[in-house]
Amino acid sequence: RLYGVAPHGYFSGDAGEKIKLLVEDCKLQWLAVTNSVDQTAALRRFCSLDPQLERRIRVIEISKLLAGAIARLHLGAPVNVAKFKSLGPNDPDPVLTDASQQNAAPLEAASPPNKPSPPPPGPGPGLLPL
After folding, report:
1. 33-81 per-position pLDDT tens digit
2. Strand runs labelled E in 7-102
3. Which residues pair with 57 in a beta bridge?
4. Which of 18, 55, 77, 88 could form a disulfide with 72 if both were Cys (CB 3.0 to 4.6 A apart)?
């Protein structure tokens, strides 16, 4: 039996055909991928190639994990701690909960309107001074 893992599965070109060959020749049971890259189009392509391929792809939901890590980095909270590492996909993340409660008020009222920054002095975009 063969199992596969593609953390950021970006299936381009003839990936579906190659996976189909792995199923047929090597008895691939399933291929686990995260949803860090949207898998909707890939699953449609695989299904059109062979309807049985779709059930071979297991998409793992990690959006909450990524959101928690990004929020912690933005807020200066630690990411590499046992409490964060032990959160499961259905566990409430206290940092995300606190951040969402603190940001419940409309941000537009608290922030000045965005004005475009003046261009930096220099020879122009993409050019380096001599």
Report:
1. 999 889 999 999 999 999 988 889 999 988 888 888 888 888 888 888 7
2. 28-34, 57-60
3. 31
4. 77
Q: Classify 26 as helix, strand or coil.
A: helix
Matching residue, tokens 């055909």:
17
> In Å, how far from its chain's centre is CA 47?
22
Is the distance from CB of 62 to CB of 33 less than 8 angstroms?
A: no
Query: Angle at CA 104, nearest 5°, toward 100 and 107?
Result: 110
**β-strands 57-60, 28-34 pairing:** parallel
What Rg value do the Cα atoms of the chain yield, rounded?
22
* Long-range contacts (CB closer than 8 Å, 24 or more residues apart) made by 69-74: 71/95, 71/96, 71/99
Output the pTM of the full model: 0.62
Residues pairing with 59 in the sheet: 33
Residues 6+ apart with CB under 8 A from 58: 30, 31, 32, 33
Whole-number Å distance between alpha carbons of 41 and 35: 12
